[in-house]
Amino acid sequence: MQGGIERCSVVVPTLGRPSLDLLLDALAEAQGPRPAELVLVDDRPSGAPLRPGRAGLPPVRVVRTGGGGPARARNLGWRTARTEWIAFLDDDVVPDPDWYERLATDLRDLPPDVAGSQGRVRVPLPGDRRPTDWERGTAGLATSSWITADLAYRRAALAAVGGFDERFRRAFREDSDLALRVMDTGARLVRGQRWITHPVRPVDRWVSVRVQAGNADDVLMRRLHGPDWRARADAPLGRRPQHTAVTAAALAALGSAAARRPRAAAIAAGFWLAGTAEFAWARIASGPRTRAEVTSMSLTSAAIPPLATWHWLRGVVRHRRVRPWRGLPDLVLFDRDGTLVRDYPYNGDPEFVKPVPGAREAVDALRARGVRIGVVSNQSGVARGLITRDQVDACMARLAELLGPFDTVQVCPHGPDDGCSCRKPAPGMVKAACAELDVDPARCVVIGDIGADVEAAAAAGAVGILVPTPVTRKAEVAAAPRRAATLTEAVGDVLAGEW
Protein backbone atom coordinates (compact mmCIF):
# COMPACT_ATOMS: atom_id res chain seq x y z
CA MET A 1 0.00 0.00 0.00
CA GLN A 2 2.79 2.50 -0.71
CA GLY A 3 0.44 3.93 -3.17
CA GLY A 4 -2.06 2.93 -0.51
CA ILE A 5 -0.93 3.45 3.08
CA GLU A 6 -1.33 7.18 2.62
CA ARG A 7 -5.01 6.42 2.09
CA CYS A 8 -5.32 5.01 5.62
CA SER A 9 -5.85 6.65 9.01
CA VAL A 10 -5.08 4.86 12.28
CA VAL A 11 -7.70 5.47 14.98
CA VAL A 12 -6.93 4.69 18.63
CA PRO A 13 -9.61 5.23 21.30
CA THR A 14 -7.95 5.68 24.67
CA LEU A 15 -8.54 6.33 28.33
CA GLY A 16 -4.98 7.59 28.72
CA ARG A 17 -3.72 4.36 30.27
CA PRO A 18 0.06 3.81 30.63
CA SER A 19 -0.19 1.17 27.88
CA LEU A 20 -0.78 3.99 25.39
CA ASP A 21 2.88 4.97 25.70
CA LEU A 22 3.95 1.46 24.67
CA LEU A 23 1.67 1.61 21.64
CA LEU A 24 2.95 5.03 20.57
CA ASP A 25 6.55 3.95 21.04
CA ALA A 26 5.94 0.91 18.85
CA LEU A 27 4.26 2.99 16.14
CA ALA A 28 7.06 5.54 16.22
CA GLU A 29 9.75 2.87 15.87
CA ALA A 30 7.98 0.65 13.31
CA GLN A 31 9.47 0.25 9.85
CA GLY A 32 7.96 1.35 6.57
CA PRO A 33 5.91 4.22 5.14
CA ARG A 34 3.51 6.02 7.47
CA PRO A 35 -0.28 6.25 7.09
CA ALA A 36 -1.98 9.59 6.49
CA GLU A 37 -2.55 10.30 10.17
CA LEU A 38 -2.91 8.90 13.68
CA VAL A 39 -6.16 9.94 15.37
CA LEU A 40 -6.14 9.57 19.16
CA VAL A 41 -9.65 9.72 20.58
CA ASP A 42 -9.53 10.74 24.24
CA ASP A 43 -12.60 9.11 25.83
CA ARG A 44 -11.99 10.43 29.34
CA PRO A 45 -14.68 12.71 30.77
CA SER A 46 -11.90 15.08 31.81
CA GLY A 47 -8.18 15.19 32.37
CA ALA A 48 -4.99 16.77 31.17
CA PRO A 49 -4.48 16.82 27.40
CA LEU A 50 -2.73 13.81 25.90
CA ARG A 51 0.88 14.47 24.88
CA PRO A 52 1.63 11.96 22.15
CA GLY A 53 4.61 13.81 20.63
CA ARG A 54 7.27 11.39 19.36
CA ALA A 55 9.57 11.48 16.39
CA GLY A 56 8.63 8.88 13.83
CA LEU A 57 4.86 8.95 14.31
CA PRO A 58 2.48 9.81 11.47
CA PRO A 59 0.82 13.24 11.78
CA VAL A 60 -1.10 13.08 15.06
CA ARG A 61 -4.50 14.57 15.80
CA VAL A 62 -6.24 14.36 19.19
CA VAL A 63 -10.02 14.60 19.51
CA ARG A 64 -12.15 14.25 22.65
CA THR A 65 -15.51 12.64 23.29
CA GLY A 66 -15.97 13.70 26.91
CA GLY A 67 -16.78 10.05 27.67
CA GLY A 68 -19.26 7.68 26.12
CA GLY A 69 -17.48 4.39 25.63
CA PRO A 70 -15.37 2.77 22.93
CA ALA A 71 -18.11 2.62 20.29
CA ARG A 72 -18.68 6.38 20.42
CA ALA A 73 -14.93 7.03 20.53
CA ARG A 74 -14.27 4.94 17.43
CA ASN A 75 -17.17 6.61 15.64
CA LEU A 76 -15.74 10.04 16.32
CA GLY A 77 -12.35 8.87 15.10
CA TRP A 78 -13.49 7.54 11.73
CA ARG A 79 -15.97 10.36 11.15
CA THR A 80 -13.26 12.98 11.49
CA ALA A 81 -10.90 11.06 9.18
CA ARG A 82 -11.11 11.53 5.42
CA THR A 83 -9.13 8.55 4.13
CA GLU A 84 -10.38 5.51 2.27
CA TRP A 85 -9.33 3.10 5.03
CA ILE A 86 -9.61 3.35 8.82
CA ALA A 87 -7.34 1.06 10.85
CA PHE A 88 -8.51 0.67 14.45
CA LEU A 89 -6.06 -0.23 17.21
CA ASP A 90 -6.76 -0.58 20.93
CA ASP A 91 -4.61 1.46 23.28
CA ASP A 92 -3.27 -1.62 25.09
CA VAL A 93 -1.70 -3.44 22.12
CA VAL A 94 1.85 -3.37 20.73
CA PRO A 95 2.19 -3.63 16.94
CA ASP A 96 5.08 -5.61 15.50
CA PRO A 97 8.03 -3.64 14.04
CA ASP A 98 6.82 -4.43 10.50
CA TRP A 99 3.18 -3.55 11.20
CA TYR A 100 3.06 -0.63 8.75
CA GLU A 101 4.58 -2.71 5.98
CA ARG A 102 2.24 -5.63 6.56
CA LEU A 103 -0.77 -3.32 6.83
CA ALA A 104 0.19 -1.94 3.44
CA THR A 105 0.41 -5.45 2.03
CA ASP A 106 -2.85 -6.55 3.66
CA LEU A 107 -4.83 -3.66 2.16
CA ARG A 108 -3.15 -3.53 -1.23
CA ASP A 109 -5.35 -4.55 -4.16
CA LEU A 110 -8.23 -5.86 -2.05
CA PRO A 111 -11.30 -6.37 -4.25
CA PRO A 112 -14.17 -3.91 -3.81
CA ASP A 113 -16.37 -6.44 -2.01
CA VAL A 114 -13.87 -6.71 0.86
CA ALA A 115 -14.86 -4.17 3.51
CA GLY A 116 -12.37 -5.01 6.22
CA SER A 117 -9.12 -6.74 7.12
CA GLN A 118 -8.39 -8.11 10.59
CA GLY A 119 -4.89 -8.31 11.99
CA ARG A 120 -3.57 -11.23 13.98
CA VAL A 121 -3.23 -11.20 17.75
CA ARG A 122 -0.80 -12.93 20.08
CA VAL A 123 -1.31 -12.93 23.83
CA PRO A 124 1.87 -13.71 25.83
CA LEU A 125 1.22 -16.09 28.70
CA PRO A 126 3.63 -17.01 31.50
CA GLY A 127 6.02 -19.82 30.64
CA ASP A 128 6.80 -20.85 34.21
CA ARG A 129 3.28 -21.57 35.47
CA ARG A 130 -0.27 -22.19 34.40
CA PRO A 131 -2.19 -19.06 33.37
CA THR A 132 -4.73 -17.50 35.70
CA ASP A 133 -8.42 -17.35 34.87
CA TRP A 134 -8.04 -13.76 33.62
CA GLU A 135 -5.00 -14.65 31.54
CA ARG A 136 -6.86 -17.54 29.90
CA GLY A 137 -9.76 -15.25 29.11
CA THR A 138 -7.48 -12.65 27.54
CA ALA A 139 -5.77 -15.38 25.50
CA GLY A 140 -9.10 -15.97 23.78
CA LEU A 141 -8.49 -12.77 21.81
CA ALA A 142 -5.93 -14.64 19.75
CA THR A 143 -8.68 -16.71 18.11
CA SER A 144 -11.55 -14.21 18.19
CA SER A 145 -13.21 -13.00 15.01
CA TRP A 146 -13.51 -9.37 13.93
CA ILE A 147 -12.16 -7.73 17.08
CA THR A 148 -11.12 -4.11 16.73
CA ALA A 149 -7.90 -4.58 18.70
CA ASP A 150 -6.56 -4.48 15.11
CA LEU A 151 -9.12 -4.22 12.32
CA ALA A 152 -9.10 -1.99 9.26
CA TYR A 153 -12.39 -1.02 7.57
CA ARG A 154 -13.17 0.88 4.45
CA ARG A 155 -14.59 4.22 5.53
CA ALA A 156 -17.44 3.83 3.02
CA ALA A 157 -18.44 0.54 4.68
CA LEU A 158 -18.57 2.22 8.09
CA ALA A 159 -20.66 5.08 6.72
CA ALA A 160 -23.07 2.71 4.99
CA VAL A 161 -24.08 1.05 8.28
CA GLY A 162 -23.73 4.05 10.59
CA GLY A 163 -20.55 2.87 12.28
CA PHE A 164 -20.44 1.28 15.71
CA ASP A 165 -23.72 0.88 17.63
CA GLU A 166 -23.32 3.20 20.61
CA ARG A 167 -25.87 1.25 22.63
CA PHE A 168 -22.95 -1.08 23.38
CA ARG A 169 -21.36 1.03 26.09
CA ARG A 170 -18.58 -1.39 27.04
CA ALA A 171 -15.69 -2.81 25.06
CA PHE A 172 -17.74 -5.92 24.40
CA ARG A 173 -19.76 -7.11 21.39
CA GLU A 174 -19.66 -3.71 19.68
CA ASP A 175 -17.10 -5.00 17.21
CA SER A 176 -18.99 -8.25 16.52
CA ASP A 177 -22.20 -6.28 15.95
CA LEU A 178 -20.46 -4.02 13.45
CA ALA A 179 -18.95 -6.97 11.59
CA LEU A 180 -22.33 -8.70 11.23
CA ARG A 181 -23.99 -5.53 9.94
CA VAL A 182 -21.19 -4.94 7.43
CA MET A 183 -21.40 -8.54 6.19
CA ASP A 184 -25.20 -8.21 5.96
CA THR A 185 -24.59 -5.67 3.17
CA GLY A 186 -22.94 -8.42 1.12
CA ALA A 187 -19.39 -7.32 1.91
CA ARG A 188 -16.63 -9.65 3.07
CA LEU A 189 -14.15 -9.42 5.93
CA VAL A 190 -10.75 -11.09 5.61
CA ARG A 191 -7.74 -11.81 7.79
CA GLY A 192 -4.43 -10.15 7.06
CA GLN A 193 -0.85 -11.10 7.95
CA ARG A 194 0.09 -8.23 10.26
CA TRP A 195 0.56 -8.95 13.97
CA ILE A 196 0.05 -7.18 17.26
CA THR A 197 0.83 -8.31 20.78
CA HIS A 198 -1.94 -7.93 23.36
CA PRO A 199 -0.37 -8.05 26.84
CA VAL A 200 -2.49 -9.21 29.74
CA ARG A 201 -3.20 -6.07 31.72
CA PRO A 202 -3.16 -6.25 35.53
CA VAL A 203 -6.56 -6.45 37.21
CA ASP A 204 -8.01 -6.97 40.66
CA ARG A 205 -9.65 -10.19 41.81
CA TRP A 206 -13.18 -8.92 41.08
CA VAL A 207 -12.77 -8.29 37.36
CA SER A 208 -14.58 -11.53 36.44
CA VAL A 209 -17.57 -10.32 38.42
CA ARG A 210 -17.70 -6.94 36.66
CA VAL A 211 -17.53 -8.38 33.16
CA GLN A 212 -20.82 -10.22 33.74
CA ALA A 213 -22.51 -6.98 32.66
CA GLY A 214 -21.82 -8.18 29.13
CA ASN A 215 -24.71 -10.64 29.44
CA ALA A 216 -27.07 -7.72 28.81
CA ASP A 217 -25.18 -6.98 25.59
CA ASP A 218 -25.70 -10.58 24.49
CA VAL A 219 -29.44 -9.99 24.72
CA LEU A 220 -29.08 -6.92 22.49
CA MET A 221 -27.10 -9.00 19.99
CA ARG A 222 -29.88 -11.58 19.83
CA ARG A 223 -32.53 -8.91 19.37
CA LEU A 224 -30.55 -7.30 16.55
CA HIS A 225 -29.20 -10.36 14.74
CA GLY A 226 -31.48 -13.27 15.61
CA PRO A 227 -30.91 -16.55 17.45
CA ASP A 228 -28.02 -17.66 15.22
CA TRP A 229 -25.87 -14.61 15.93
CA ARG A 230 -23.34 -16.59 17.98
CA ALA A 231 -22.52 -18.92 15.12
CA ARG A 232 -22.13 -16.01 12.72
CA ALA A 233 -19.96 -14.03 15.14
CA ASP A 234 -17.98 -17.06 16.34
CA ALA A 235 -19.05 -16.31 19.93
CA PRO A 236 -19.50 -19.43 22.11
CA LEU A 237 -22.43 -19.50 24.51
CA GLY A 238 -20.30 -20.20 27.56
CA ARG A 239 -21.83 -21.18 30.88
CA ARG A 240 -24.85 -18.92 31.04
CA PRO A 241 -27.38 -21.81 31.04
CA GLN A 242 -25.53 -23.40 33.95
CA HIS A 243 -25.42 -20.04 35.74
CA THR A 244 -29.18 -19.74 35.34
CA ALA A 245 -29.70 -23.24 36.77
CA VAL A 246 -27.41 -22.56 39.75
CA THR A 247 -29.18 -19.26 40.44
CA ALA A 248 -32.59 -20.96 40.24
CA ALA A 249 -31.41 -23.55 42.77
CA ALA A 250 -30.27 -20.80 45.14
CA LEU A 251 -33.61 -19.01 44.85
CA ALA A 252 -35.47 -22.28 45.36
CA ALA A 253 -33.46 -22.96 48.51
CA LEU A 254 -34.24 -19.53 49.91
CA GLY A 255 -37.91 -19.78 48.97
CA SER A 256 -38.30 -23.23 50.48
CA ALA A 257 -36.59 -22.12 53.67
CA ALA A 258 -38.92 -19.13 53.92
CA ALA A 259 -41.90 -21.47 53.39
CA ARG A 260 -40.57 -23.76 56.16
CA ARG A 261 -39.93 -26.68 53.86
CA PRO A 262 -36.54 -27.82 55.14
CA ARG A 263 -36.24 -30.94 53.00
CA ALA A 264 -36.88 -29.05 49.77
CA ALA A 265 -34.56 -26.26 50.93
CA ALA A 266 -31.78 -28.76 51.64
CA ILE A 267 -32.14 -30.42 48.24
CA ALA A 268 -32.10 -27.09 46.40
CA ALA A 269 -29.15 -25.88 48.48
CA GLY A 270 -27.32 -29.07 47.59
CA PHE A 271 -27.84 -28.42 43.89
CA TRP A 272 -26.61 -24.84 44.35
CA LEU A 273 -23.53 -25.98 46.28
CA ALA A 274 -22.70 -28.70 43.76
CA GLY A 275 -23.08 -26.32 40.82
CA THR A 276 -20.99 -23.62 42.46
CA ALA A 277 -18.28 -26.09 43.46
CA GLU A 278 -18.12 -27.55 39.94
CA PHE A 279 -17.78 -24.06 38.46
CA ALA A 280 -15.09 -23.06 40.95
CA TRP A 281 -13.09 -26.23 40.38
CA ALA A 282 -13.25 -25.86 36.60
CA ARG A 283 -11.61 -22.47 37.00
CA ILE A 284 -9.15 -23.52 39.69
CA ALA A 285 -8.01 -26.76 38.03
CA SER A 286 -6.75 -25.00 34.91
CA GLY A 287 -4.94 -22.28 36.83
CA PRO A 288 -1.80 -21.90 38.90
CA ARG A 289 -3.60 -22.97 42.11
CA THR A 290 -1.88 -20.39 44.23
CA ARG A 291 -3.57 -19.37 47.45
CA ALA A 292 -4.58 -16.00 45.99
CA GLU A 293 -5.99 -17.58 42.81
CA VAL A 294 -7.92 -20.27 44.72
CA THR A 295 -9.39 -17.65 47.04
CA SER A 296 -10.40 -15.41 44.13
CA MET A 297 -11.95 -18.27 42.16
CA SER A 298 -13.88 -19.51 45.20
CA LEU A 299 -15.33 -16.10 46.01
CA THR A 300 -16.14 -15.04 42.47
CA SER A 301 -17.56 -18.42 41.48
CA ALA A 302 -20.29 -17.93 44.06
CA ALA A 303 -21.03 -14.39 42.86
CA ILE A 304 -20.90 -14.89 39.09
CA PRO A 305 -23.99 -17.10 38.48
CA PRO A 306 -26.54 -14.74 40.10
CA LEU A 307 -24.87 -11.67 38.61
CA ALA A 308 -24.76 -13.21 35.13
CA THR A 309 -28.44 -14.10 35.43
CA TRP A 310 -29.32 -10.65 36.74
CA HIS A 311 -27.57 -8.85 33.91
CA TRP A 312 -29.18 -11.17 31.37
CA LEU A 313 -32.64 -10.43 32.79
CA ARG A 314 -31.79 -6.74 32.84
CA GLY A 315 -30.97 -6.99 29.16
CA VAL A 316 -34.23 -8.80 28.43
CA VAL A 317 -36.17 -5.93 30.03
CA ARG A 318 -34.07 -3.11 28.64
CA HIS A 319 -33.94 -4.44 25.09
CA ARG A 320 -37.55 -5.54 24.74
CA ARG A 321 -37.87 -3.46 21.61
CA VAL A 322 -34.86 -2.37 19.61
CA ARG A 323 -34.52 -0.80 16.22
CA PRO A 324 -31.65 -1.39 13.82
CA TRP A 325 -28.80 1.04 14.40
CA ARG A 326 -28.66 3.90 11.90
CA GLY A 327 -25.98 5.89 13.60
CA LEU A 328 -25.47 9.56 12.89
CA PRO A 329 -25.86 11.04 9.43
CA ASP A 330 -22.68 11.84 7.54
CA LEU A 331 -23.89 15.32 6.67
CA VAL A 332 -26.47 17.78 8.03
CA LEU A 333 -27.45 20.64 5.72
CA PHE A 334 -29.20 23.71 7.10
CA ASP A 335 -31.35 26.26 5.38
CA ARG A 336 -29.99 29.68 6.35
CA ASP A 337 -32.72 32.32 6.69
CA GLY A 338 -35.34 31.37 9.24
CA THR A 339 -33.44 28.27 10.34
CA LEU A 340 -29.92 29.26 11.39
CA VAL A 341 -30.48 33.03 11.44
CA ARG A 342 -33.43 35.34 11.80
CA ASP A 343 -35.15 35.93 8.49
CA TYR A 344 -34.60 39.43 7.09
CA PRO A 345 -35.93 39.17 3.50
CA TYR A 346 -33.29 39.71 0.80
CA ASN A 347 -30.71 40.61 3.38
CA GLY A 348 -27.35 41.78 1.99
CA ASP A 349 -25.97 43.35 5.18
CA PRO A 350 -23.75 41.15 7.37
CA GLU A 351 -24.78 43.22 10.39
CA PHE A 352 -28.28 41.76 10.11
CA VAL A 353 -27.04 38.15 10.28
CA LYS A 354 -28.39 37.22 13.71
CA PRO A 355 -28.33 33.53 14.76
CA VAL A 356 -31.50 32.05 16.22
CA PRO A 357 -31.30 30.90 19.86
CA GLY A 358 -29.27 27.71 20.23
CA ALA A 359 -27.80 27.81 16.71
CA ARG A 360 -24.16 27.86 17.78
CA GLU A 361 -24.70 25.10 20.34
CA ALA A 362 -26.53 22.98 17.77
CA VAL A 363 -23.85 23.11 15.09
CA ASP A 364 -21.10 22.66 17.68
CA ALA A 365 -22.84 19.53 18.97
CA LEU A 366 -22.78 18.05 15.47
CA ARG A 367 -19.13 18.97 14.96
CA ALA A 368 -18.23 17.40 18.31
CA ARG A 369 -19.62 14.07 17.10
CA GLY A 370 -17.80 14.23 13.78
CA VAL A 371 -20.85 15.07 11.64
CA ARG A 372 -20.11 17.39 8.74
CA ILE A 373 -22.39 20.39 8.29
CA GLY A 374 -23.33 22.71 5.48
CA VAL A 375 -25.72 25.40 4.27
CA VAL A 376 -28.14 25.26 1.32
CA SER A 377 -29.77 28.63 0.71
CA ASN A 378 -32.10 30.10 -1.90
CA GLN A 379 -31.04 33.68 -2.62
CA SER A 380 -33.45 34.87 -5.31
CA GLY A 381 -32.70 38.46 -4.34
CA VAL A 382 -29.68 38.19 -6.67
CA ALA A 383 -31.89 37.37 -9.67
CA ARG A 384 -34.36 40.09 -8.66
CA GLY A 385 -31.59 42.71 -8.55
CA LEU A 386 -32.16 43.41 -4.86
CA ILE A 387 -28.76 42.18 -3.65
CA THR A 388 -25.48 41.18 -5.27
CA ARG A 389 -23.67 37.87 -5.08
CA ASP A 390 -20.85 39.60 -3.25
CA GLN A 391 -23.34 40.67 -0.57
CA VAL A 392 -24.59 37.08 -0.28
CA ASP A 393 -21.01 35.88 0.13
CA ALA A 394 -20.34 38.54 2.77
CA CYS A 395 -23.38 37.39 4.75
CA MET A 396 -22.22 33.77 4.47
CA ALA A 397 -18.79 34.80 5.73
CA ARG A 398 -20.41 36.52 8.69
CA LEU A 399 -22.43 33.37 9.38
CA ALA A 400 -19.20 31.37 9.55
CA GLU A 401 -17.71 33.96 11.92
CA LEU A 402 -20.67 33.55 14.26
CA LEU A 403 -21.29 29.79 14.02
CA GLY A 404 -17.93 28.41 12.94
CA PRO A 405 -16.85 26.95 9.59
CA PHE A 406 -19.11 24.90 7.36
CA ASP A 407 -17.92 21.97 5.27
CA THR A 408 -19.99 23.05 2.28
CA VAL A 409 -22.01 26.13 1.32
CA GLN A 410 -24.43 25.94 -1.60
CA VAL A 411 -26.26 29.05 -2.85
CA CYS A 412 -28.90 29.32 -5.56
CA PRO A 413 -28.96 32.89 -7.01
CA HIS A 414 -31.84 32.17 -9.39
CA GLY A 415 -35.42 33.33 -9.30
CA PRO A 416 -38.50 31.10 -9.10
CA ASP A 417 -39.16 31.38 -12.84
CA ASP A 418 -35.62 30.67 -14.01
CA GLY A 419 -36.16 26.92 -14.27
CA CYS A 420 -32.90 25.98 -12.56
CA SER A 421 -32.26 22.63 -10.90
CA CYS A 422 -30.71 24.12 -7.77
CA ARG A 423 -33.46 26.27 -6.27
CA LYS A 424 -35.30 24.46 -3.51
CA PRO A 425 -37.60 22.50 -3.71
CA ALA A 426 -35.42 21.17 -6.54
CA PRO A 427 -32.70 18.79 -5.25
CA GLY A 428 -29.72 20.42 -6.96
CA MET A 429 -28.03 22.05 -3.96
CA VAL A 430 -28.51 18.99 -1.75
CA LYS A 431 -27.07 16.72 -4.41
CA ALA A 432 -24.18 19.10 -5.05
CA ALA A 433 -23.30 19.25 -1.35
CA CYS A 434 -23.35 15.45 -1.07
CA ALA A 435 -21.24 15.08 -4.21
CA GLU A 436 -18.70 17.62 -2.98
CA LEU A 437 -18.21 15.71 0.26
CA ASP A 438 -18.64 12.21 -1.20
CA VAL A 439 -21.71 11.50 0.95
CA ASP A 440 -24.55 9.17 0.04
CA PRO A 441 -27.71 11.37 0.07
CA ALA A 442 -29.42 8.65 2.11
CA ARG A 443 -26.95 9.51 4.91
CA CYS A 444 -27.77 13.24 4.73
CA VAL A 445 -30.30 15.29 6.74
CA VAL A 446 -31.69 18.66 5.65
CA ILE A 447 -33.14 20.97 8.32
CA GLY A 448 -35.24 23.93 7.23
CA ASP A 449 -38.23 26.09 8.10
CA ILE A 450 -40.44 25.74 5.01
CA GLY A 451 -41.83 22.96 2.86
CA ALA A 452 -39.36 23.62 0.04
CA ASP A 453 -36.50 22.53 2.31
CA VAL A 454 -38.17 19.22 3.11
CA GLU A 455 -39.18 18.67 -0.52
CA ALA A 456 -35.62 19.30 -1.73
CA ALA A 457 -34.36 16.71 0.74
CA ALA A 458 -36.86 14.12 -0.43
CA ALA A 459 -36.14 14.79 -4.09
CA ALA A 460 -32.41 14.24 -3.45
CA GLY A 461 -32.97 11.04 -1.46
CA ALA A 462 -32.09 12.70 1.85
CA VAL A 463 -34.09 13.09 5.06
CA GLY A 464 -35.85 16.38 5.77
CA ILE A 465 -36.77 17.82 9.17
CA LEU A 466 -39.05 20.85 9.36
CA VAL A 467 -38.58 23.42 12.14
CA PRO A 468 -41.64 25.66 11.68
CA THR A 469 -41.64 29.38 12.34
CA PRO A 470 -44.67 31.71 12.51
CA VAL A 471 -44.43 32.23 8.73
CA THR A 472 -44.43 28.51 7.90
CA ARG A 473 -47.71 27.60 6.24
CA LYS A 474 -49.95 25.17 8.11
CA ALA A 475 -50.18 22.93 5.07
CA GLU A 476 -46.39 22.62 4.99
CA VAL A 477 -46.30 21.71 8.66
CA ALA A 478 -49.00 19.07 8.18
CA ALA A 479 -47.22 17.58 5.16
CA ALA A 480 -43.77 17.31 6.76
CA PRO A 481 -42.97 13.69 7.73
CA ARG A 482 -40.54 14.85 10.42
CA ARG A 483 -40.90 17.97 12.53
CA ALA A 484 -39.20 19.56 15.52
CA ALA A 485 -40.28 22.53 17.59
CA THR A 486 -36.84 24.16 17.64
CA LEU A 487 -33.47 23.88 15.96
CA THR A 488 -32.07 22.50 19.21
CA GLU A 489 -34.69 19.77 19.25
CA ALA A 490 -34.08 18.88 15.61
CA VAL A 491 -30.34 18.47 16.15
CA GLY A 492 -30.98 16.56 19.37
CA ASP A 493 -33.14 14.08 17.45
CA VAL A 494 -30.39 13.67 14.86
CA LEU A 495 -27.76 13.01 17.53
CA ALA A 496 -30.09 10.46 19.16
CA GLY A 497 -30.32 8.59 15.87
CA GLU A 498 -33.94 9.59 15.30
CA TRP A 499 -33.77 10.82 11.73
Automatic annotation (TrEMBL):
Keyword Transcription among UniProt keywords: no
Pfam families: Glycos_transf_2, Hydrolase_like
Stretches assigned to the Glycosyltransferase 2-like domain: 9-132
One Gene Ontology CC term in the entry: cytoplasm
Key words of the record: Carbohydrate metabolism, Cytoplasm, Hydrolase, Metal-binding
Family the entry assigns: Belongs to the GmhB family.
Keyword NAD: no
SUPFAM superfamilies attached to this UniProt entry: HAD-like, Nucleotide-diphospho-sugar transferases
Region listing for Disordered, in residue ranges: 49-68
GO biological process, one term: carbohydrate metabolic process
Annotated protein name in UniProt: D,D-heptose 1,7-bisphosphate phosphatase
Cellular compartment(s): Cytoplasm
Organism: Geodermatophilus sabuli
MF terms in GO: metal ion binding; phosphatase activity
Record InterPro entries: Glyco_trans_2-like, HAD-like_sf, HAD-SF_hydro_IA, HAD-SF_hydro_IIIA, HAD_sf, Heptose_bisP_phosphatase, Histidinol-phos, Nucleotide-diphossugar_trans
Top-level taxon of the source organism: Bacteria
